Fold:
Amino acid sequence: MIKTLKRGLTALSLSAALVSTATLADTLKIGAVAPKTGPLAGGATVTQWPTVKLWVEQVNARGGIKVDGKMMPVELIEYDDQTNPGETIKAVQRLATQDKADFIVAPYGTGLNIAAAPIFSRYGYPQIAVSAITDQVADLSSKFPGMFFTLGSTSTFAEDAVKVLADLRDKGEIGNKVAMVNVADAFGIELAAAAKPIFENANFELVYETSYPLGTQDLSPVVKAAKAANPDAFVAWSYPPDTFGLTEQAIIEDLNVKAFYTAVATSFPAYGGRFGAKVNNVLGAGGVHADSAAYQEYAKAHMDLTGQAPDFWASATTYASLQILEQSIEAVGNDRKAVTAHLKEASFDTILGPISFNGNNFNEAFWTVGQWQDGVFHGVAARGRDGAKEVRVKDGWN
Amino acid sequence: MDILITGILLGGTYALIAMGLNLQYGVARIMNLANGEMLVAGGFAAFWFYVNQALSPLLTWVLVAPVAFLLNWLIYQIILRPLVKRAKNRGMLERDSILATFGLSFIGVGVMLASFGGDYFSYSFAATPVVIFGDTFGLNRVLSFVAAVILCGAVYLWMHFTRIGMAMRALAVEPRSAGLVGIKVSKLAAIAFALGGTITAVGGSLISTYLTLDASTGVVFTLKALIIVIMGGVGDIRGTIIAALMLGIIETLVASLIDPGLTLAAAYLLFILILLFRPQGLFGRVRS
Structure:
């Protein structure tokens, strides 16, 4: 009796072991590397991590990703790169060699994406970068054929910001004088350098121009000097903490401009939450078609699952990049080489609308400028996207 | 005038950042690299109470202070006391405490990430203009400056006009001899450490009314505090206050008259000059 029981138990545990290996082989391992600590953690916590989590939950709720006719649930493996490029590279390597991830979500931030590109390329992983804005797209995609760009380029962001102001000026709503400041960090320096000739070609007069170090604790000298130059428009190529700081100082100093633009984090819900109606008609980088049913559905699911709202820019694009990955795997199977080739030629149906990549692996349809209008950050300028709202003139800080 | 006031206000911020570390390093001899995390934790508390309980950040200190005092006292007793006991000399204690508190700073970041998430926590409090001598300043910065003056003044008076304060100063000057004249060194060092942490946390609550913080920003403040404490002279309250004001005024001068891009360069130039000509800091004593 005991013997039979023992034998039964052994058989049971053996079959259990078999089952567990079977489920292991049936899951699709997706790696994710992005900052949870360090300077970019604040941004990644708004834009990247909750959306990755949401996508994995949703995929698994519908049974997984369909690979060769079989539903494979997704197993997510997360690593914190501490906003340190060395750590990003190590984590990607670990995902490729130790964890044997099937696919890896692109890292967060321009610098970290570029740092990780060689290692993605070496192990043959497609890298659908989102939070990476650069003018080196052609160069990077020729070096790393598996690297894709979804969010736009530096010069298009600068061009469209200038265009929004030029349109207002041509309508006679604002004057010709612009104060432009930037954070002295790769992103801010690159954008300021790109924007300056564009402003000059558009016959704007730059009445004040400066940069400030990342992490400046008092931006009032910057805003005071800008105010003294009496500009019609204020443009800041800024990062999250200084986007908040510049806006607060502008409110305190009553910097009375007809157009006020800050770059990264203007699209964050925390920005609207902190300043409320005061920042009505503030312009910023990014934007989405916030009224579209697809975005609203995504935003609601995001809120329900994570308890926080997505931003009005790169969050939705991050989600779209995961939809692209999912659709590509379903189309050609769990095969990184085939997926990379498929990404280059197919068109994908995402919450932003259709996305496809050109010869440089560059998605040509994206939002460039948004504006807070009555509590929502709407896209007001885009390349190849519909739904842009009319730009409004800023009327004081009330 | 505008530049001077802006600079003094910024100096007040810096004094809030550095005052606690001065007590911890100067009196308790613990080079606390987790100082910034304590500051961010204080900011978190102010944010949480303001958003969820509508409690003014100016009042949060009533709750923050006792909790921070207890927490820092426990940290000292459990983690740092063994290091103090086994240290054969000051150099060894400094090395060990730097390593231990460096680790502690990671734990601090981790705990805050786990409990609050990595999102920016920012809120708007008293972001209204006040006019002083014809120029406008943020009310939140002015309020925080007033609080800094009260806090620094209180610490200074306490250090100079109470018995325990005198003992603290004795400890800062010569820990060994302090023991010989009947000062309970270990008990006092624990109090100094806990008090330093409390001041830092309360400072963080005040600073969070105008700076945007997140769980990982602590290290920025630790670095600034280190510079100020070393510039002012280790263990001297006046030195920290003067150094903080100097730094604030010089950064603002450079930002307003030359270029905001050069503020960091100016701050470090000042730091290097002081190290070159007064390596013991403005008010520091030469170690015998």
Observations:
- Chain B has eleven helices and two strands.
- The longest helix of chain B spans residues 90-116.
- Chain B has a mean pLDDT of 87.
- Residues 145 and 245 of chain B are 11 Å apart (CA to CA).
